[in-house]
Request: fold
Amino acid sequence: MTLEQILDRLRTDPALAPHLTAWHEIPARAGSYAPLPASLDPRLAAALRGRGIERLYSHQAQAWEAVRAGHHVVVVTPTASGKTLCYNLPVLDTLLAEPSARALYLFPTKALSMDQVDELLGLVRATDAEIRAYTYDGDTPGDARRAIRSAGHVVVTNPDMLHAAILPHHTKWLRLFEHLRYIVIDELHTYRGLFGSHMANVVRRLRRICRFYGSAPQVICASATIGNPRELAERLLEEPVSLVDENGAPSGPRVFAFYNPPVVNRELGIRRDALTEAGRLAAEFIRNRIPLIAFARSRRAAELLTTGFRRAAEAAHVPAGRVAGYRAGYLPSERRAIEEGLRSGQILAVAATNALELGIDIGRLRAALLVGYPGTIASTWQQAGRAGRTQDLAAAILVATSDPLDQYIVRHPEYFFGRPPEAGLVNPDNLYVLTSHVRCAAFELPFDDNERFGPSTLPEILAYLQDQGIVHREADRWHYVADAYPAQEVSLRSASTENVVIIDTTEPAPRVVGEVDLASAPGLVHEDAIYLHLGQQYHVDRLAWEERKAYVHRVDVDYYTTAQIATDIRVLAEFARGNGAPPPAHGEVVVTYRPTIYKKLTLDRHENIGWGPIHLPESTLHTTAYWLTVPDLAVPRDELQGALVALSHALAHVASLFLMCDPRDLGRAYEVHSPHTDRPTVYLYDTCPGGVGFAERLYRLHPDVLAAARELIAACPCAGGCPSCVGPVLEVGATGKARALQILDARLVPGAVG
Ligand SMILES: [Zn+2]
Reply:
């Protein structure tokens, strides 16, 4: 069968068709082209022609013009639209004309930077010029590092290396900083939330050092789909940025379908397992030799899919080597072989985690299966975009799990198809983040009294650092005087400098796999927790609280853990309060956590299969929150409590949808009688100390969030609550679901209640 025939069958099969909740057809698009620019260096033009490129896509030409006009630029076009040429062309053109010029490329991950260096070097070789491009990361050997510092025209690295290894040693990088003409920031959309807030400060430090050496580099950003590319780029650069977002690359026709597995237990809202359903769909593609990629949300799920693929291949007499799995934890060489196999067509079907989501080139396949909603509109389009060549029909199918987000999306396809992707939020002036980078910046170069570094609070921060014995003011200048080397204590992935380090003891040589900030540690790395990192599960064997260390080992289990945390929240300041019933507000809060017990829940059905106590001290988190007062329902207290739990469960999930964040980035709390509002109140707070802007955003999105929460609850087929809407009946009580709806309806019909 052809892909067309498979899709036709899917739409007419009485066992499948009723469960298709969306069938979205995207017509083919002709490309829009422009000639190679007349001003392009002839060597570069010849190199392009040698690779079969006779003309540019219109967006590549626009980017060229904008860069030549001296603007900072952000290019936003879909996967495989030739984005890298948008920066490689102007950069190489400058390097050909001025051999002393330098460029710095920043990619969020190592795998990506290797891929990009290969591509860049391919183009350089074709010009026969003496241009050297190197990756500089943790694996770069010491002697190579010296060569890169003095002779690398293009230095390719990641923000963490820039922050901890390059900026603090800027004197060794004199050549680079003196002649730096371009900074390329690819995968801009990854710099959001806390990581983006750090990145904005790393950029402040980078440009401060450039000013010191007398250079003023132009910045070229590239991004996958995101709702606010120009705003995000301007927040990171603190200067105007030109936007190039009209994609000129051609594409064939595409179908995007949503499939919601049928309900098997109405009472509990349990549906048929998404992995099994996806496996059946995949088998159909494999049988018909249709190149396929399936995305799973966890490493374990990817493994299960791969096993299913192998079976389907065997049944269809497809050689076993033509199906593969791809996830974090594979050796780089294994991953490269799979990428190459996908590009050449040798591999027919691959089951991957989002490790394959970013810009790594794997050619283009004909079908993409998304097992579970990837969490954001933007990454959903990115994964779906892995299927689709320039001419042929391509298909993407999203198979929903029972998670609230999945259920909301597949039941409201108009939300997904009708809405621009989420905006990326950053808060570069988060006081914790800012103070950390002021320390690092002071180490790099002394601050002048009248220097600017972000907001106007710099003098106060410097005065605070002086009190701490870190800087000392002398003759209008602030000098770094502490012994410690500050960048090493600051992780770009966490807010406070106080973190719990996670140490993997599976192998004889223990290895640090990550960090969690102190406030989140009790809930995530208590003893016997299952900690997830890059899709790998770890069992926490011991949490040494005083030493801030968690010792873990790798496991492969079919459950996850969730901690019950008694949460007290106190409002310190209210920044704004809106109208409406119930009225929203946002402000500054202190959250006190006291972990009590943890529960083990199965991965597929979220069934409770055990619990244990947690023995840890209280911790506090200073952050920002959005809150909502609830009309008094005049019901018994336990019913009210159930309603608040139900409401906060639904709100937190839909809120993460609007914020483009992981549901775990939002904490939730409620008070039956809040001393601050004098009413029952539900809070959603930013779990990052100091906040990254979620609370204010939620306050602005308040009507949308409430409406979406109402729809999520109202459309759920369960009787009295389930994990897909308000949480299980056991937690919300028999009336929780109904009362939560009643509260939300009160807002839609003002004055109906309270
Ligand atoms: Zn439900």
Q: What stands out?
A: DSSP finds 23 helices and 32 strands in the chain. Residues 637-659 form the longest helix (23 residues).
